[in-house]
Design a protein that fits this description.
With 199 residues, this protein is mainly alpha-helical. It has helices at residues 2-19, 25-31, 37-69, 73-92, 110-119, 122-135, 137-156, 158-197. The radius of gyration is 17 Å and the shape is globular.
């Protein structure tokens, strides 16, 4: 039983780290500060729908783009790992924010910046392709959908979560997540180098 679930668990965890649902809560709350409950619900649905659609589309066409451009999986692992590491380091810096668009208040904020790039950004897209290569499309798709459900749940309950954990707790949790993201990035680079040069 556990052996059958292993690919799903191992693909879920890196995606959970890359999505960083808890870390998005303060940004979400700042964006919807003056919105009604109905508007908030629409923004949440737009955000999760956009994030899921972008990730799935990239899953479908990502490998085709690789073939078209002559990019190998080790190439992508090295480049993607380096990109993830840079993102993680920048987010770990004091005063770092996931986006400079947190003051944006428009009717499409669920699509941009929440859906992409905050929920599904370079980290999620890179990790999704890596998980597909490692654990297959089925495990990756299930893990992605479960993560997006968790994002929806955290956004719906954002007020309760931030009251329970507190702003400091959210920041501390996010820093831990960013460290894990940096570690996953190093792992990707290591696998890419091994695949490209040490076969």
């Amino acid at each position: 039983m556990m052996e059958a679930l292993k690919p799903y668990i191992l693909s879920f965890i890196p995606l959970f780290v890359a999505v960083d649902a808890i870390g998005n809560i303060p940004i979400f709350l700042s964006l919807v500060e003056n919105c009604s409950k109905a508007q908030k619900n629409k923004i949440i649905l737009d955000a999760v729908g956009t994030a899921t659609a972008v990730a799935i589309i990239f899953m479908v066409i990502g490998q085709w783009i690789f073939l078209l451009l002559g990019i190998t999986i080790p190439d992508f692992q090295i480049a993607g790992g380096a990109l993830l590491f840079i993102i993680a380091v920048r987010l770990l810096m004091p005063g770092a924010q996931k986006s400079t668009l947190t003051n944006s208040h428009n009717k499409d904020m669920g699509v941009f910046p929440l859906g992409t790039p905050l929920i599904t950004g370079p980290a999620v897209l890179t990790t999704t392709l890596m998980m597909m290569n490692s654990f297959g499309p089925a495990a990756t798709l299930v893990s992605l959908i479960l993560n997006m459900f968790f994002v929806w749940l955290t956004l719906v309950r954002a007020d309760v979560i931030i009251k329970f954990i507190g702003p400091s707790g959210i920041r501390a949790f996010s820093k831990i997540i960013y460290i894990l993201l940096a570690a996953i990035a190093v792992m990707m680079i290591r696998h890419g180098v091994t695949g490209a040069f040490l076969k």
